[in-house]
Amino acid sequence: MSRWISLFVCGSAFLSCSCFGQGKLGYRIPSIEFSEISFEDAVEFIRVKSVELDTAEQDSGKKGFNIIVRTIPEDTPPISLNLQNVTIGVALGLIAEMADMSIESDAYAVTLVPREKSARSIPANRASNSVLGKLGSIQLSNVEFSDVKFSEAIDYLRSRSRELDTDPNPLQRGVNFVIMPSPGGTDPSISLRLKDVPLADTVRYACSMSQYQPRIVGEIVKLYPPDWIPAATQPAGSR
Q1: How many whole angstroms separate alpha carbon 217 and alpha carbon 123?
Q2: What integer pLDDT is reported at residue 6 of this predicted model?
Q3: What is the model's pTM?
Q4: How far apart are CA 88 and CA 20, in angstroms?
Q5: Which domains does the chain have, with CATH numbers?
Q6: Is the dihedral of CA 84, 90, 95, 100 positive or negative?
Q7: Cα distances (angstroms) measured from residue 36 to each of 81, 130, 188, 192, 239
Q8: pLDDT, tens digit (0-9, with 9 covering 90-100), for 28-52
Q9: 109 pairs with which residues across the strands?
């Protein structure tokens, strides 16, 4: 097992759409920047992008794909994402997961449906080699966090990963980090001082101090708050 995978302990699998990455869901969005927007606006963004990026379809009435939202939970949190070069399917999957929704699909539409709170779980690692390589090769010469919010620390690491990545394609530089929303709305503060450490270890230390759990799923590093798993299924000693 890769050293970097071993840094991110495995959990249970996340329900995903079987058609992700195929056909129209496979078109790539150059960048996404959401700052606490509504679930409805996030889904509408995906709907619009599916039409804009569908250059293969000549009939304008058939561009994009249908998205059906069965019911929106009353306590759905706002959506915050900062991503580069992700597929429509991955983006929609993240939005659904952050809103506690499951995805169903058939030949005509993708349907988002609420899932039971007891079904919430942290997925197993399914990392791409490119993300593992970046986490291990990007070296941070100096990191100083003094009573900084966890979300701000991750914003900094995301930005630095893009600055230090030497990939010739600007859209493929850096690592996509996603902080999954905390049901309790917490954003703990951390203090950390490091020199000459890989990005992977920096993320690991930051997560350890804030009790977040990192998972690498495809091209995304997801960071789960300690209250994500229902108490009945929390591993011993996790609180």
Answers
A1: 8
A2: 45
A3: 0.80
A4: 8
A5: 3-11+123-229 (3.55.50.30), 23-119 (3.55.50.30)
A6: negative
A7: 8, 29, 18, 26, 28
A8: 999 999 999 999 999 999 999 999 9
A9: 66
